[in-house]
Amino acid sequence: MMEDLVPLSDTEFNILTRMLFDRFGIHLGDQKRVLLSGRLSKRVRETGCGNFSEYIDYLRTDPSGREQTELINRITTNHSFFFREGEHFAYLKDNVFSRIEEAVSKRSPPAVRIWSAGCATGEEVYTIAMLMRSHFGNRIDGLDIGLLATDISVAALSQANEGIYQESKLKELPGEWKRQWFTKAGPDQFRISDEIRGMVLFKKLNLMETPYPMKGSFDVIFCRNVMIYFNAQSREHVVNAMHKCLKPGGVFFVGHSESLNRETCPFEYVKPAIYKKGEGDRGIKP
Ligand SMILES: C[S@@+](CC[C@H](N)C(=O)[O-])C[C@H]1O[C@@H](n2cnc3c(N)ncnc32)[C@H](O)[C@@H]1O
Predict the structure, then answer these.
(1) Mutation to probe ligand 1, out of 78, 226, 227, 242 (largest number of atoms < 8 A from CB)
(2) Same domain, 29 and 127
(3) What is the residue with the minimal CA distance to atom 24 of ligand 1?
(4) Which helix (H) or strand (E) element contains residue 220?
(5) Series of mean pLDDT values for 10-residue runs along the chain (286 residues)
(6) Does 218 fall in a domain?
(7) How far apart are CA 128 and CA 132, in angstroms?
(8) Do residues 230 and 27 make contact, with C-beta atoms less than 8 angstroms apart?
(9) Listed residues 75, 108, 123: the one ending a domain
(10) Residue 282: its pLDDT value, please?
(11) Owning domain of residue 149
């Protein structure tokens, strides 16, 4: 409620937005003032601070860094759902899985590495896992698959690991998948199966902190509806860092409401929200 908001002065707003930008790349313009005080007022009180200036001091002097984690948990929007932007999964099946099929038929199955960056509560990466299981069936056991999912929000990651979802998040899923890989966990809640959950490794990662600590490179990176928070400079920073993590020929997905700057983008454009690293491309463009 508006009357519960702790007053936020211009200086306090500027300090907090600077902090969010410098540490996480998150850009909140002036129009986000109400959003910021709305999301943080309760936290200011929970920490026993009397106003935002005290809270800022608390944030700055907390040696554990835990309050920073709390801050980011409150600010980020972790909205996601299963099978979101379905065309991406169709592209994955038709273009990436088909290449794996070919290699399998030649008895040289490759290692497949897929990264869901900004995975929120896990719906995106679990959709990929189900798609792989449904496409490859029992042959999946003969494949070396690595699914990595990362996010800055520990709260979102913990929900992802738990794997329990409101029924509304499953609306786009094929009924058969729902029957096969979910069990009822409450009045309108569903739990994802261990078979799917066990395919994914969840890790905390701030996308602004580059280079990324990855062993080896990826065939596919999903970074959808994450860079909406970033300004052009942070977006470019993250896109270049991800380009370095992809194998030549690798595919890069962004959200449909996002687009990359064609002038500075190191990727080849495939179609809306789908990009590719050139087959012979081993580094970023000068
Ligand atoms: C709207 S969700 C997108 C979830 C999923 N990719 C999808 O499209 O459904 C955006 C996620 O990006 C994460 N995020 C924002 N800034 C980040 C950063 N600097 N590093 C890592 N994750 C970040 C947020 O915590 C949030 O969970």
Answers:
(1) 226
(2) no
(3) 76
(4) strand 218-223
(5) 81 96 92 93 96 97 91 92 97 93 79 96 98 94 94 96 98 97 96 98 96 94 94 94 96 93 92 92 54
(6) yes
(7) 6
(8) yes
(9) 75
(10) 66
(11) 87-276
User: Does residue 81 lie in a domain region?
Assistant: no
Ligand 1 binding pocket includes 224 (Cβ within 6 Å): yes
**Residue 132, φ and ψ in degrees, nearest 5:** -65, -45
Query: With a 6 A CB cut-off, is 152 part of the ligand 1 pocket?
Result: yes
- pLDDT score, position 283: 59
| Atom nearest to 80 CA in ligand 1 | 9
pLDDT for 262: 85
CA distances from 94 to 37, 83, 87, 132, 257 (A): 45, 16, 10, 12, 23
Cβ 24 under 6 angstroms from ligand 1: yes
90 C-alpha to ligand 1 centroid (Å)? 22
Instruction: Enter the tokens of residue 212.
Output: 């990324």
Ligand 1 pocket residue status of 234, Cβ below 6 Å: no
Q: Do both 203 and 71 map to the same domain? A: no
The answer to whether the CB of 266 is under 6 A from ligand 1 is no
